């Protein structure tokens, strides 16, 4: 029996006019102040450095420090990968155009069952923040996904305590569609109160883990639609 909330994949061959499949031709994109390009071996040290910043990793899946060997292996794995590959994430390096300095990354993961749907993420090194670069890079990514790759829907998942990222996604006019409670396992919560003040006013009581264990973390789900593809 099919439940009312189950989604059917599109019929075989029905692309809804969308481009499907890996963008093997992708090399780089540009916004006003940024170059968004494939990662290369020259990015190993900078990638390892910002992934090792505790404040940068706080609401992300990786542990710190993030070694050069881990960075090298991750970047190596991207060499044979392409953006818009169903069932896979692709990480784009974000570079300040004026200086050529690698300052972070944006990423897009494409749904395996419905490749018209993607999820995005962003990370900037601390020294590059407060300049609007993250918003500019994500605006480029949304444009790439909706216009170049003709996606139907793009979502972002954000730890509710990550108020800076939530504000950024709000600023991009992504709408809050859901607030999933205790929906993902990230890092231990260090606050003893059980109520996280960074919960962007949604009155969620954070679950406190048993001593010595990690915490189940609520996620905000934000989404953007490209209305022309309605
Ligand atoms: C989330 C993250 C990318 C946001 O970076 P950011 O630099 O704060 O975001 P923005 O690019 O939107 O910059 C906005 C700030 O730059 C300021 N700014 C300066 N010049 C600007 C310009 N030309 N255009 C726009 N904003 C500008 C804005 O006023 C704003 O400052 P405010 O937050 O004090 O109001 C960053 O905090 C980060 O990398 N965090 C760690 C990784 C992470 O958690 N990622 C999110 C996963 S969902």
What would you note in describing this structure?
By secondary structure, the protein is an alpha+beta fold. The longest helix has 16 residues, at 133-148. Helix content is 21%, strand content 26%. The radius of gyration is 18 Å and the shape is globular. Coenzyme A (COA) is lined by residues 56, 59-60, 121-124, 129-135, 156, 158, 162, 164-165, 168.
How many angstroms does the end-to-end distance come to?
29 Å
Approximate shape: globular
Bound molecules: coenzyme A
Kindly state the mean pLDDT as a whole number? 79
Strand adjacency order, main sheet: 1-2-3-4-5-6-8-7
Estimated share of beta-strand residues = 25-35%
CATH architecture of the largest domain: 3-Layer(aba) Sandwich
What is the N-to-C order of secondary-structure elements (H for helix, E for strand)? Answer: EEHHHEEEHEHEE
- CATH fold-level label of the largest domain: Aminopeptidase
Query: Uncertain segments of ≥5 residues (pLDDT<50)?
Result: 1-17, 194-211
What value does the Rg take, in angstroms?
18 Å
């Amino acid at each position: 029996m099919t439940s009312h909330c189950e989604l059917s994949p599109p019929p075989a061959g029905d692309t809804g006019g969308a481009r499907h499949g890996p963008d093997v031709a992708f090399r780089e994109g540009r916004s006003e102040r940024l170059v968004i390009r494939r990662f290369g071996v020259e990015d190993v040290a900078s990638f390892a450095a910002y992934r090792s910043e505790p404040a940068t990793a706080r609401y992300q899946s990786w542990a710190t420090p993030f070694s050069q060997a881990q960075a090298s292996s991750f970047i190596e794995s991207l060499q044979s990968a392409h953006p818009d590959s169903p069932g896979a994430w692709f990480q784009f390096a974000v570079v300040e155009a004026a200086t050529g300095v690698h300052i972070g990354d944006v990423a897009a993961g494409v749904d395996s069952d419905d490749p018209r749907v993607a999820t995005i993420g962003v990370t900037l090194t601390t020294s590059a923040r407060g300049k609007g670069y993250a918003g500019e890079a994500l605006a480029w990514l949304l444009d790439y996904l909706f216009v170049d790759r003709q996606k139907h829907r793009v979502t972002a998942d954000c730890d509710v305590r990550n108020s800076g990222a939530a504000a950024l996604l709000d600023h991009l006019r992504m709408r809050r569609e859901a607030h999933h409670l205790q929906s993902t396992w990230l890092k231990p919560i260090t606050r003893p109160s059980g109520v996280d003040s960074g919960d962007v006013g949604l009155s969620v009581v954070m679950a406190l883990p048993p001593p010595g264990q990690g915490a189940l973390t609520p996620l905000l789900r934000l989404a953007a639609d490209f209305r022309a593809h309605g």
